[in-house]
Amino acid sequence: MAKRKVSNTLALAVLGLLQEQPMHPYEMASVLRERHKDSSFKVNSGSLYDTVEALARHGWIEPVETERDGRRPERTVYAHTKLGQDEFVHWIDELIRTPVAEYPKFMAAVSYLGALGPDGATDALAERADHLEARIEETRAVLAETVGSGRVPRLFMIEVECALHAWEAERDWTRRTIAEIRDGSLFWPRVERAEQGWTWSAPADQKGRK
Amino acid sequence: MAKRKVSNTLALAVLGLLQEQPMHPYEMASVLRERHKDSSFKVNSGSLYDTVEALARHGWIEPVETERDGRRPERTVYAHTKLGQDEFVHWIDELIRTPVAEYPKFMAAVSYLGALGPDGATDALAERADHLEARIEETRAVLAETVGSGRVPRLFMIEVECALHAWEAERDWTRRTIAEIRDGSLFWPRVERAEQGWTWSAPADQKGRK
DNA sequence: GGGCATATAGTAGGTTCCGACTATTAGGAA
DNA sequence: TTCCTAATAGTCGGAACCTACTATATGCCC
User: Global pTM?
Assistant: First the structure.
């Protein structure tokens, strides 16, 4: 499978918005924020303008007019093309169908959880769990006042439910891990420098060596 | 909180490895792969050399010798510094403690799940669920032959358990969503262009308008 | 013992991405 | 009226990142 011409997912958001109506980049950013889509897409003005240009280069969108309001900077309004419309659907299909490796920062840190020691680790994990809890509450509130009130169809906010589910899972894992460190079921080896590489203490009678 | 000098998590991996012993970049990559850490860190030789250079620039690591074996390219061996050691622990603590926004590609695509239509969506989601299932099985196998056999302490592979948990959650959400689309409990509005913006059909008697 | 795949070690070059900045207008406080 | 802030609209320079490539050495199959 050949690599995508434009791989930034912000491009997906742009294509999505232009399915509805022509827009200029600044408006795209505003609409995305209004609809809470800025939790699924990193909406950064620098990236946005780059992305729009790249999409135009490849013929997936095209400028339809440039307006100027007083002495404000000129704005270029873009519309999607037939090509862009097809690509939009194919891209979504591919992204849903095929999981790709991602490298969340948390996973990287958990890799070296050992470096914090059992107390440092439980402390840091506990704080994370609290932050996650707060974020989960906020998200639930957003869902309640949009989908819950019938103002927005549930399908249009489905990614928020998906994210919510992921955070809940992360919170649960975090809490469970804290508990396992506390009650000793996650054994904490003491690593020591040996003449050749490292040795670590083992839970029962096992001894390991790298 | 001031921004980190080097924010690439690959730098965390480098610091982690150098806590054990001095190494040259190529060896770091090999060791990371050996230990299955390449699922938490994107190990790319180009990025690796850049990252190592950046760490050296900031004084977190330093070159200790350059060797040459026959006519092979020269290799520079690096060691961590006191600064790098402190930074390593602080960085991990921060990453664990404070969740940061990330933008997985799947979330972006789910945002526009509607574009696939109910049948296209269930089809794509089902394929994803199968891929996830396969990945989960593989990961379990890896855990069994390392931690399960007592060759590696569980703490040293804890990030693999964390990832496993996340994938299981994603698989569950995916399966549940497929079921909800099929049985109609996730209502699929038909969106239509109106004179001003868009209208969509509503499940019961509700009507919405953006 | 010739050829081919793989492991070793790193470089080069370009694209993408992002934070920080510019400049104008509108609205309200004082 | 003037000052200050927020909103509007976008630019710019540099860091990060990744792909593709170079070049040597080694093992091994036939």
Answer: 0.90
